[in-house]
Amino acid sequence: MIIIGIETSCDETAVAVLEGTGDLSPSGLNLRSNIIASQVKLHRQFGGVVPEVASRKHVETIIPVIEKALDKAGVTLPDITAVSATYGPGLVGAVLVGLSAAKALAVALNIPFIGVNHIEAHMYANFLEHPHLRPPFVCLVVSGGHSDLIYLRDYGDYEVLGRTRDDAAGEAFDKVARALGLDYPGGPAIDEVSKGGNPSAVRFPRAFLEAGSYDFSFSGLKTSVVNYLAKAQSGGEEISVPDIAASFQEAVVDVLVDKTLKAASKKHTPIVALAGGVAANSRLRQELYLRAQERGVDVKYPSPILCTDNAAMVTCVGYFQLLLKGSSPLDLPASPSLSLE
Q1: What DSSP element (H or E) covers 220?
Q2: What's the average model confidence in pLDDT over 125-135?
Q3: Domain range for residue 9?
Q4: The whole model's pTM is what?
Q5: Looking at the domain assignment, is residue 251 inside a domain?
Q6: What is the DSSP letter of 78?
Q7: How many CB atoms neighbour CB 152 within 10 A?
Q8: Residue 54: count of CB within 10 angstroms of its CB
Q9: Could you tell me the pLDDT band of residue 24, with boundaries at 50, 70 and 90?
Q10: Is it the case that residue 341 has pLDDT exceeding 80?
Q11: Are residues 300 and 152 in the same domain?
Q12: Within this chain, do residues 115 and 200 fall inside the same structural domain, yes or no?
């Protein structure tokens, strides 16, 4: 089985080619290419992703990226068994570009089309990196638009334990980075500058919410940082950007790690996984690993290139979904607010 996958949910035009043995085992997967055309430089001038600009760039880039992915994989279109693409959640105009391209390939080649949930795809990046990983386990998906805590009972069988109630973790990173005068995207910028700061310099609030809740809320934390900066500036106080960045990051990481490990305890699973763009954060990886080790819990996470939006994860879901559930209808619409439930 050779599957081509397309991902255009936000500002990366990505295409990958995955080969599989045809059975339900990640160890039989071989990622033959994973091409990503990023729009970060394009959107940096705006301080964030502009949906219409992203959609237009996808239209310009999608065909060359498909051709490059096929070339690097050493295959041609007649070799492809199936095509998968993200159909949500995401920016609807951006999603439509990749979705339309995938459907066109499916019709032209007379092969199955598989619509993929973007959040689900992030989780499956772990199967590409850890071929011996098997469900069940708890996965924390953290990115610019999502903060979801999910229990994977099995392939394609999930229970959403918690999700963000306002700002997602990545969104909070971007907004605080902007307030601190750091570059876009904010996550990597804060991660880097925090390495020279004191995470205990400022005690920012932790929103653990009501007892037993696995939901997340970072809007109040973001506001607290902005208010702290305004008060310090109005009082003529000297501001240490590394200290504030590190203190903010610590507040986010503290909540993410605490809830993830509590969820693992509730579900009696010895494995937790990270996924999504914020999963590349060095402090989150370090703290989750250290605190998980104290509880005898194993931690899995993908390499940074598989944390950010990519098509390798889309092909992985497409592979398992085709084996378990078959193909998707060609009239499957783009779903910008798609959830796992």
Answers
A1: helix 219-234
A2: 95
A3: 2-125+307-324
A4: 0.94
A5: yes
A6: G
A7: 24
A8: 23
A9: confident
A10: no
A11: yes
A12: no
